[in-house]
């Protein structure tokens, strides 16, 4: 445990200098607004409200005045605390040396590092998910007496209820305690303990759900808000990756998000040291092959433990692949630990050179991570750049039509005229009802692409372009602002009226 404490302290200390203290995107503005006035109907934050996460945010907000800095501090602390249940779980399965290696790699892995400095809920959600796995693993530990195992099962129910209060999209993690409870019940016949654990999970979920209903005004109002948000979120929002086939999406998801974003392997825009990470990853695969030849990989007799790992990775992995935005690697953060575990086990299978390889991998990962978070500290996000530009360079009569960029623009400069939309008919209605002249109309590239009308591009020209690191801002690392061409003013007016 002392080693885990040292690594946890290291994890926290290397993140503190890079904590984000300003708005970078839609979600963190939602959380910041929610800290000022929690209102689910006003999307402060958006559905489902993240009640457990926001409760912790309120506590941090009492000591840190800047809401973005407070939220980032939660992420850093959560990333550090993950080390303890991570270390215990890996040690129980693979021994102390592997546990130390996985904890060290977690502390410096690019995805863990970046999200551990941003004002988002993912690091805190990952902490609860790993606590859930760790307590479920204790349920399966036959060396413990039944009382301790029953208490671990009860805590699994509590962690699951709290996890759902951070993100409902963590629903698939329910497979972990279900497996542990089923195995425990079959072995001990103490099904009442399983029932109490389920009851705990239901009660915890009920408490935060009831609080959400009170905030909205009624249970019926909460259900209507849920349907309205999820319908728009999955059909009109997202900007998700649109590959030509399921196979292309899978390749992109694995190599871009799991390996490049998660571990720092080579990808366009990545630091050159990423080639070293790629080489060490190949060596890890070689280590697994050696371990297999030596007969060190045994499956028989470990069905319970391997089943738990399966329930940890596969159900949520399928959910993250099919139901989450494939452009956002942060959705796979809870699964980064099993990936690091596999890589560390492969390198340590090289025996004498294993610890050296782990050290080299940690150094390479830290370099990749440092370049990313250092850029986050020095430069504003593309959305923030757009807001600053609009406030200082556009005419007073300007109206900027945006998509998700609108949230940041309105937060930073409430006086700016911004309209969030996607449909061409809504765009026409807005311009005609406001009697806007062509020189007052500005649009982002996301809005223009959302119209699905290729002919509109001949009426506009690029006014400004804002860029950021794609590893920091996956879906909005480049934003282009357009204006109506001066020579197309009359034709533009006719287009709006048709």
TrEMBL record:
<keyword id="KW-0812">Transmembrane</keyword>
<feature type="transmembrane region" description="Helical">
    <location>
        <begin position="68"/>
        <end position="86"/>
    </location>
</feature>
<feature type="transmembrane region" description="Helical">
    <location>
        <begin position="194"/>
        <end position="214"/>
    </location>
</feature>
<keyword id="KW-1133">Transmembrane helix</keyword>
<keyword id="KW-0472">Membrane</keyword>
<feature type="transmembrane region" description="Helical">
    <location>
        <begin position="303"/>
        <end position="326"/>
    </location>
</feature>
<dbReference type="InterPro" id="IPR050297">
    <property type="entry name" value="LipidA_mod_glycosyltrf_83"/>
</dbReference>
<keyword id="KW-1003">Cell membrane</keyword>
<keyword id="KW-0732">Signal</keyword>
<protein>
    <recommendedName>
        <fullName>Glycosyltransferase RgtA/B/C/D-like domain-containing protein</fullName>
    </recommendedName>
</protein>
<dbReference type="GO" id="GO:0016763">
    <property type="term" value="F:pentosyltransferase activity"/>
</dbReference>
<keyword id="KW-0328">Glycosyltransferase</keyword>
<feature type="signal peptide">
    <location>
        <begin position="1"/>
        <end position="20"/>
    </location>
</feature>
<feature type="transmembrane region" description="Helical">
    <location>
        <begin position="332"/>
        <end position="349"/>
    </location>
</feature>
<dbReference type="GO" id="GO:0009103">
    <property type="term" value="P:lipopolysaccharide biosynthetic process"/>
</dbReference>
<feature type="transmembrane region" description="Helical">
    <location>
        <begin position="152"/>
        <end position="182"/>
    </location>
</feature>
<feature type="transmembrane region" description="Helical">
    <location>
        <begin position="98"/>
        <end position="117"/>
    </location>
</feature>
<keyword id="KW-0808">Transferase</keyword>
<feature type="transmembrane region" description="Helical">
    <location>
        <begin position="273"/>
        <end position="291"/>
    </location>
</feature>
<feature type="transmembrane region" description="Helical">
    <location>
        <begin position="356"/>
        <end position="373"/>
    </location>
</feature>
<dbReference type="GO" id="GO:0005886">
    <property type="term" value="C:plasma membrane"/>
</dbReference>
